[in-house]
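We modelled the chain as a single entity of 460 amino acids. Its sequence is:
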Amino acid sequence: MRRSFVQLSAWLLLLFTSVACSDDEPERICEGRVYRLCDVREASCHRQVFDSMRCLRGDSADVPMPAVAVLSQREVQELFLEEQGEFELTDEVRHVQAALSLLGLVEPVELTPESQVQVSTEGLLGFYSASANALVVIDADDFDYRGVEANGTLGHEFLHALQHADFDLEKYRKRIDESYDAELAATTLLEGEATFFGRFLETELEGIDHERVDWPAFYDELTDAADEYVKDEPAPETTAFQVFPYTYGPHTSIDLWRKAGLAGLAKAREERTPTTLAHLGRRHQVSLVRISAPEAVEALTPAGFELFGVEKMGSWIVHGFVSHALGEEATPRLALEWRGDSLSVFGSDEASALIWEIEWETEATARVIAEAVSARRAPGPGLWGAYPRGTSTFIYGVSRGTEQLLAVEAASRGEVSAPTAGGGDPPDAGTGPNARYDREAGHHALSTFLKGRVHSCIRD
């Protein structure tokens, strides 16, 4: 569980509790249960919170309780560093970071094991390990072991243990499409359930009947805050897994649960190619025809470059990107027109490059986005350009060199070469896939880079 939006959530909770109160007594889910704050370092507290979460979710009393450890932030960072093993700043990693930095999706910082772990642990209050069936509560700065936040974090992580006992988290994750978008969408569904049940516990510990809270209105406000946050966030990919699962996730999950209980959540998990678009559509009440966004397809490799990977980034990342391209004009409803995307990353001895095709519902949107990108300088170091073709916007860029930019644009248009300065023969045309991009061998630099930064509070 992460600390993002915790203070805002507490304020909103009080607001929407007063709105929801009525003279009608709701039927209590866990009738007779008394909720008390306890010290999350003590075994008796573990049993108390676990039983509360089991009761709130409606799980059987014979579900075993996982082991619990309380670790300092330093101990957790050392653990994550050990998990990373040998970290090598390869050409592939450099090119991927440079391309994503050019788009403004990540910050152009020096990549080290320490910096990667910093991204993974920032704001993290706890996590659950499915393989070990154990959870960790992190002793953060000013951490109150007996506070609502500590108890809520413990409850949130216990909920993941209940999920694992119910449907096996590891098997579920393996069934999901390997794209970045599907990973974020699936994580959002899992974290959403853990978040709203964890909120139930927190409200009870605050002395508030959780069944009197107007939860739909509460999560409407929280997702609106996330939409505003992404406009100001300079690197939307960096915070995607810290924000989206804990705002849009509970909005989706509590809606499914209220309508059909745990069966509704189980039905949603049957989707093998989940999308962030589905979460956005549910929140903004847009009726979306079932959209199975196509797999990402690598673009033609530009002359003189090698392909280092292709990825489907998804509607939420596109929303973050477009928010910076269009500023105040961007709204989540524009992201709802996303119908697929393919981001290809390339590299050469001289430069890093990218081609990003984003497909929209209409040609008009494709033109608007292309014009907005063309009218602005690239957010990160490098040069870029854009143009519309049908319902797609093509964005191309290089870390340096006008000549290289011409080669990348040519490839984006389906041409194998570009003019060279002073005439003469163009450099050798790239042909992908190539030796450095072998999908069957599992060597996928872009995907590896992104998944190395994917850290919800569920760990394999």
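As a brief sanity check on the tokenised model: DSSP finds 16 helices and nine strands in the chain. Strands lie at 67-72, 126-129, 134-139, 306-311, 338-347, 352-360, 383-389, 392-398, 458-459.
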